[in-house]
């Protein structure tokens, strides 16, 4: 026994016996003993439940109840400390029963002396400790302290029973480190072991944090990470809502493990291949789930490693495809797959370029050019819009600064902000960073926001918009007419322009309703002293109509589609030489048109 105080609880309804036991324990040498005493069954249950003693001494006779009952109940509710039963002279059958029920020892009260009592307690505690250690060795991996294969199988079996009974879904994963042998061969087994330990720690960490993705976006209740042996790990998600939950956890493992490890002074890189099987589509019992998760893991290896795969039944093609797309999107920034295109905005009165709208494009390795309409919603949903948006801001500001540095006429560049970006707290920092890093004057930056972003929380938004304009940049209301902003609101917001949505412009020459709406928007914008920009202008007829109504700034395929940066640079350069892209068209319109405020 170590030299800390030994905490003993005596359960005995006889005060005399308490006094005797107390005095006997006081004689114990070499170790301080702190004894508590309770005299009823119920008090005992409560005290044992608090789990604050090293050993329990239970009197066999406890009024109407017995010490044996107390012992059974306590053990059933998980009591870990050893229990010694104190019996009377004639209770020999009870003694046997007590040992069978799990008593560490029994002592006949009349025979107890200080030496016997101390020895019994000491043995009881030692025995428990040894048992616990053996149990731990049997169920836990000694290198990583993770549950081992046996315990994992036990938990998986329980999860299957639970899932069956409550008609829930469980998922299990098989993880295998990629090229682990090479690490062992290169750095030696010591580093190999360190790596396995570090991998185990990261896996635990991924599922432990209460704020982790694993829990944040899913309903997974219980996660067990185990070491299967060698460089193989298994993970059990005992209750998932849908297969995507498992995919999210797998993705988190992939991300976390791909960060370098520093082991014994070596920087070690490792990846992992993961196979996922879902109860019960991929298997109704332990063997088939394990086998199929393993097969899925091999499939992941074949797919080039460092990825996860579901066993074929568990996901239908569309959700799989969606997940793959999401994964691709996650990596697109670091793989530099995004591009910015620029679409010129023209003042019809002069034909000159008065701005460029930056529009993002995704050069997907397999699918070619992907339009923002396809990936911005997913970027919003996953939160990836925040880093992507920051990249757009930086790139657009840097490009505009480069145009100015090349001696081109300074124009503002417009950047689209999505709703989620707009609600993000550090939007201001992202903007300041983009402006400061590029050295662009804020007045050469326009942010395009949508009505719905503002309508979400009008008061907060208004404060935010004022804060933004205080920095010197300008704001335009995009897709105007599709939302529900009230006129009153519009008047209060510090915006300089509204952009008439393409859906109205499209039909102004054929649909009287759209023509009427567009007219009204233009008139209203002018009355509020706002610049009115029409987007999606494709024909000269549309342009003529807009011009006649007093809308002077236009954007659309009629003048130019969005262009890659170098082509946008070319048209800016040509404009500087007097060969502006919209000059001819605009001259024709202005000459024939009945436009208001015609200058040229
Ligand atoms: P938006 O801001 O209203 O941009 C105008 C869209 O209309 C662009 O589509 C543009 O290519 C297209 N367009 C321009 N002129 C014409 C035309 O004459 N005819 C037709 N049919 N279309 C025309 P795009 O580039 O596909 O972008 C779609 C939307 O995606 C944008 O609508 C914007 O809301 C969003 N978006 C684009 N880039 C970004 C970005 O960097 N960040 C965020 N948050 N959203 C972006
Ligand atoms: Mg826009
Ligand atoms: Mg728009």
Properties at a glance:
3 domains, binds magnesium ion, 600 residues, alpha/beta, 8-stranded mixed β-barrel, Alpha-Beta Plaits, TIM Barrel, 48% helix, binds ligand C2E
Describe this structure in words.
- By secondary structure, the protein is of the alpha/beta class.
- The chain has three domains: 6-139, Rossmann fold (3-Layer(aba) Sandwich); 149-311, Reverse transcriptase/Diguanylate cyclase domain (Alpha-Beta Plaits, 2-Layer Sandwich); 378-592, EAL domain (TIM Barrel).
- Helices cover 48% and strands 21% of the residues.
- It is built from 24 helices and 24 strands.
- The strands form five sheets. The chain has an eight-stranded mixed β-barrel, surrounded by four helices.
- Helix 14 packs parallel to helix 16.
- The model is unreliable at 210-218 (pLDDT under 50).
- The protein binds ligand C2E and magnesium ion (2 copies).
């Amino acid at each position: 026994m170590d030299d800390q105080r030994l905490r003993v609880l005596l359960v005995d309804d006889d005060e005399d016996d308490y006094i005797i036991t107390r005095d006997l324990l006081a004689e114990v040498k070499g170790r301080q003993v702190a004894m508590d005493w309770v005299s009823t069954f119920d008090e005992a249950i409560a005290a044992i439940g608090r789990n604050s003693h090293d050993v329990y001494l239970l009197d066999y006779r406890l009024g109407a109840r017995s010490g044996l009952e107390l012992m059974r109940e306590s053990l059933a509710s998980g009591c870990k400390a050893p229990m010694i039963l104190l019996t009377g002279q004639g209770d020999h059958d009870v003694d046997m029963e007590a040992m069978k029920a799990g008593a560490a020892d029994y002592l006949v009260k009349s025979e107890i002396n200080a030496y016997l009592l101390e020895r019994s307690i000491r043995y009881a505690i030692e025995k428990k400790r040894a048992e616990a250690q053996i149990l731990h060795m049997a169920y836990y991996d000694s290198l990583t302290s993770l549950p081992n294969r046996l315990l994992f199988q036990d938990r998986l079996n329980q999860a299957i029973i639970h899932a069956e009974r409550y008609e829930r879904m469980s998922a299990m994963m098989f993880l295998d480190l990629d090229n682990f042998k090479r690490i062992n061969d290169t750095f030696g087994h010591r580093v190999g072991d360190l790596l396995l330990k570090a991998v185990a720690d990261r896996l635990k960490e991924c599922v432990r944090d209460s704020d982790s993705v694993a829990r944040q976006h899913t309903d997974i209740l219980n996660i067990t990470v185990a070491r299967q042996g060698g460089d193989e790990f298994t993970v059990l998600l005992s209750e998932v809502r849908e297969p995507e939950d498992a995919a999210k956890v797998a993705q988190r493992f992939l991300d976390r493990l791909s960060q370098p490890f520093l082991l014994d002074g070596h920087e070690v890189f490792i990846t992992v291949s993961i196979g996922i099987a879902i109860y019960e589509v991929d298997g109704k019992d332990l063997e088939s789930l394990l086998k199929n998760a393993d097969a899925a893991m091999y499939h992941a290896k074949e797919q080039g490693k460092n990825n996860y795969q579901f066993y074929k039944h568990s996901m239908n093609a569309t959700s799989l495809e969606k997940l793959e797309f999401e994964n691709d999107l996650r990596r697109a920034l670091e793989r530099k797959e995004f591009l910015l295109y620029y679409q010129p905005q023209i003042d019809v009165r002069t034909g000159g370029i008065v701005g460029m709208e930056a529009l993002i494009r995704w050069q997907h390795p397999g699918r070619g050019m992907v339009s923002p309409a396809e990936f911005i919603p997913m970027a919003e949903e996953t939160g990836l819009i925040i880093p992507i948006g920051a990249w757009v801001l930086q790139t657009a500001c840097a490009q505009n600064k480069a145009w100015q540095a090349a001696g081109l006429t300074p124009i503002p560049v417009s950047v689209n902000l999505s709703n989620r970006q707009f609600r993000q707290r550090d939007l201001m920092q992202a903007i300041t960073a983009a402006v400061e890093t590029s050295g662009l004057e804020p007045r050469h930056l326009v942010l395009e926001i949508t009505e719905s972003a503002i309508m979400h929380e009008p008061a907060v938004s208004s404060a935010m918009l004022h804060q933004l304009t205080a920095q010197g940049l300008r704001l335009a209301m995009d897709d105007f007419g599709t939302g529900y902003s009230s006129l009153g609101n519009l008047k209060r917001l510090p915006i300089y322009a509204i952009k008439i949505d393409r859906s109205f412009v499209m039909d102004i020459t054929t649909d009287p309703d759209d023509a009427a709406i567009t007219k009204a928007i233009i008139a209203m914008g002018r009355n509020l002293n706002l610049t009115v920009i029409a987007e999606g202008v494709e024909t000269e007829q549309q342009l003529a109509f807009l011009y006649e109504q007093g809308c002077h700034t236009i954007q659309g395929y009629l003048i130019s589609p969005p262009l890659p940066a170098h082509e946008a640079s070319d048209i800016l350069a040509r404009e500087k030489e007097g060969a502006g892209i919209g000059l001819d068209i605009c001259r024709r319109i202005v000459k024939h048109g009945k436009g208001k405020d015609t200058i040229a």
